[in-house]
Structures are given as structure tokens and as C-alpha cells.
């Protein structure tokens, strides 16, 4: 997907996470993993499978079901010389660790005068379309992005998963990495070299002239499919992947909006107060005089995610809805 | 009250004098800032440690500079016992840029990570998971460092306590939990926070986690010191976590300005009979470790030190408003 020179190999996102963490643990023995069932099963999505055999259960450390302690002890370890990577099974479970995220992890460096490095990563996943019902299905990256002091990354493709995860592990700041259950099995070429994608830098995944679609994770794949479908109708769609939600690369997004003059923003957060509001505001502020029409927002309707397939499908936008919004603007 | 084993060696005279000096420093610092707060020189909230000096002092005396600690919203005593500089502490209370946190933390958030002081904390039990992580890190880095977390009796009701001690128990981490039982959780008495079965011994909360449980008189600095030494020895030698309940009393309100409506008549006066700032100097003088004059000298010296600290704070600059945007992340900048 992302244009890269040099060698590449095709991998699924899930395998990229495993390989990347393995490489980082190989490179730096301060990096360790903790979470529920991370050893043995390899975490709830089996993503970490085999890392315990390679690095031992001291560095792939099963915790009790204790999100407060899991996140808080990672903070303490990060403050005293380690580089923890925590897996929180589902993003909804971040709520259990609320104080540690909101009041401790996010504020410790600033509150203590700015000198303290806190090199820690919290990996979690957004889930949509899995019929897992409301507590196991939702997207919450907008919620964490609203807390100053946390960096928030959304991985979407195999290539950005590698580049962003490496940057997150090597960052001296706490980084929340939101994966997405719907993209774990997506495959694409991944550069074999060791590289990082800057946290705070968006990517143009597809060049186009008529309409800009800013999309994350599963919706990025839907947007690319929509662009492909519309290309045969002579509509040229530019697809922007923000990669990180906080900090947000407003420059790349606004530049694309100014070029096309028409924008759709889409991801899996709820429409009210989701990332769409921030993206839309940023585009309106930065590209107002170049916009032909108001920014269109697409997201999950404002209900908890229901269980039954027909109900769940009803509220989550897909490729067809993205196509419709683009056609409305084009 | 102390239930730890008898130690064979006696505490050296110098250590006893050092502990007295630390307690005097805490009491003097807090008495002075109490006045400055009343005079509206110090903004924000102020939670005083007066009455509890023997706890921080005894615990920190048993630590080395390579150990870690986390503190509470009532953290001045822990910071001073840890050896933090009273100039920079006072400046932080005044919101000045020369303070420990450059004026970003204030009374409730003083930290000096280079001194192993991982922060005072405005959230009850909030520091316990962090200390657990420091203990984990110490173990993973194969050092003999220990991590100590101070918290109040109120923190025993928080999930963070239970999650942390469960984790520390399972992983046999070098973690010491110091329960500062000052009889009140904010403005509610102990008996409304805990079941009757726990009131006589709050370390019972550590029982399922397999920690070593010790209860000591929190008004007796030497008892606290000796209990902590035992727990530190155990932790350094791979023996896992301990929970030490220090039974004491908070002489002031939850925060300055608290009317203390909840305090029964006579209770404060009764506890003040056991004020460690009276009993300990009397003891040392009585045993010939210190003379009356020697004690007066210590008091005068520390009075001058705190006076200087207040002057330092007063004469320091407020941070430039632009500094509000600095220090969020490692590149020094703010969030885009």
C-alpha cells in the first residue's frame, strides 16, 4: 500500500505485530510484554503466540485480570528503566484502568516538571462487525486522544503497523496503539528493512483529484475499495490515512482538502464527538475558502454496538456508504 | 504493639539523632507553610502530615538512595524524609519555577525521580500500581532495589491496592506497602471504611496475597524503622512483599480549612500526649543521647533552614506563562 522502495514481503497485520515486537525485544532487552494470557495463548487474538518460547515468561509476562495494576505497573516500570508493552484485550477494558491512564500515565511527565521519560506502549483493539456486543465492540481512540499527555496511534495496514509499532516502542512517551480486529487478517507487502513511521505524520494511501476521504483502520480499507470502484466512473478519490490521531497531522489532511475541495471523513468512532468532529473542524478551519461543500462525516451511529448481525450491520458504515457520500459531493 | 522479631543490634546514636532531625524538619516545614497558606501566600490545597512524622521518618531511614517510593496527597513528610531539598519543595508550594516540578505540580505532586521519589499523588491508592511497577523493574533488571508505597487506610478500599498486592504477591516483588492509619479517610472515621473484623489489624487486607504482615506504633519512630528494616531485608533477598500498618493520628484536618466536625471531643488531645515531636526528644535526652542544648540547636538550625526555604520560594520567579505548553512529551513540546 504505502509506496516504499526496496524489498518487501507480504504479511497479514497480525503477523506483522508479532514479528515487530519480536524484533524490538531482540534489539532492546528492556522491552517486555505484559497482559492477560500473553504467554501461552499469545493474547486474546493469538497475536503474540510464540514470543514466550523465544523470550521466556519473564519478558512475556502473564498478569492477573487486573487492568489497573497492569497499566500502573507498566508506568512504574517505564519510570525506572524498562520499556513495557501492555496488551489490553479490548479497548472497552481501558475503562477499568481509567485512573492510571487518565491521571497517572498521561500526566506524570508534565506534572513532575517535564524531565521524566515514560517509554511505554499500550496495545489494544477496536472491534467492529464481530457480533461481540457492546462491551467487546467499539472504537475508543477518540476518547484517549482527548486526554493531553497520551499519544494515540491507529494502525490500519501491515506496513503502517510495523512502522508505527516500532516508533511507539522506541518512543520515550506513553503511546496508545489502537489496533482493529477487522484488519488483523489483511495482507499487503511490508518493507523488510527496519523503519519507523513518525508519530504525528499522516500518509496519502491513494492519490486523487476530485474528493478526499480521510479514513482509519477498517474504514481505510473500505475507502480504498470505494475509490477503486469510483475510478471506473471517472471519479478520482484521494485517500488519506491519518495514522496517528494524537498528535494529528493537520497539514497533510488540510493540504489534500485544499486540493480536492471536497471531503469525507470516516472511522469507527461514534458520530457524536468522535474523531470525525475533530477532522471536520480541522479541515474547515484550514481549508474553508477552498472547500466547495461542507465536510461529510461518516461513523458509527450513536448507539452501543448491538449483538444481532442485522442490527450491527445497520449502524456501521461500509464501502457502499462511503461511495454514496463521495457521489453526493462529486 | 510491634509484632516483628527482636533485632539484636541497637540503633546507633547518630541514626537516632538523624531521625529526630528529620522529624523536626517535617514539623517545622509544615507548621510554617500552614501559616503561609493561612496568609494566602500559598495557593491551592494543603494537606498536612503533622502528627505522622514518625512514619515517613522511620520508613525512609531504612532505605538506601537506590530504592524507590511513591507518596500520597499528604506527601511533604515523605519528601523530606527522603532527603528532598526544602527550598525546592517550598518553591513548588508557591508555584514558582524553581520548584521541584517547575510550578506544574504543587503540594500534591512533588517528585524527584532522580532521588527515587516517584511522586506524591492526588489519587488515593494511585501510587501503589506505580510502586509495583518499580518493584517489578527492580526485579527484572536484577538489582536489589526495593519499592515502597505510602498510602492511607482509605486506600485499602481501592481496587488499585488489591490488584497491586495480588500482582506483587504472585510475582514475589520487592514491594513494601506502608499503611498510614491516621484514623480518618478524608472526613470519615475508620469504622465506616472497614468491616469490624479489620479494624484492629488493617494488614488483614494483605492476607490473601501472601504478604508479610507487620503492625507497628506509628507514633514510635524506632518501631517503624525496625519494622521497615526487616521488611526491606526480606524484599532485597527475594522474600517478596510486605504490608506494614503504622497506627497513628492526623493532628490537622484532611486539608487546611477543614472544620474537623467529625473529631470527637478530647480525641486529639489524647493522641497529642503521644506526639512523637515531644516523646522522642524527651526519650533521647532522657537516655543521654542528646542534651537539652543539643536539641535546641537542632531546632534553631532547622528553623533557620525553613525560613531560608520560604525566602527562596518568595524570591523565585513564577514560571513564564509559555511554560504551560512545555514538558508534555519527551521532545519538550505540547500536543499538536
TrEMBL record, chain A:
Pfam family, one: Transketolase_C
Ranges of residues in domain Transketolase-like pyrimidine-binding: 11-186
Cofactor(s) for this UniProt protein: thiamine diphosphate
Keyword line: Oxidoreductase, Thiamine pyrophosphate
One GO BP: sulfur compound biosynthetic process
GO molecular function terms noted in the UniProt entry: oxidoreductase activity
Keyword Transmembrane recorded: no
Protein name: Alpha-ketoacid dehydrogenase subunit beta
Automatic annotation (TrEMBL), chain B:
UniProt xrefs under CDD domains: TPP_E1_PDC_ADC_BCADC
Cofactor: thiamine diphosphate
One annotated GO biological process: pyruvate decarboxylation to acetyl-CoA
Chain segments carrying region Disordered: 315-336
Pfam (any one): E1_dh
Keywords: Oxidoreductase, Thiamine pyrophosphate
Cited InterPro entries: DH_E1, PDH_E1_Alpha_Subunit, THDP-binding
Domain of life the protein comes from: Archaea
Record flagged with keyword Oxidoreductase: yes
One function term, GO molecular function aspect: pyruvate dehydrogenase (acetyl-transferring) activity
Annotated ranges, domain Dehydrogenase E1 component: 22-321
Name assigned to this protein: Thiamine pyrophosphate-dependent dehydrogenase E1 component subunit alpha
Source organism: Natrarchaeobius halalkaliphilus
High-level lineage: Archaea, Methanobacteriati, Methanobacteriota, Stenosarchaea group, Halobacteria
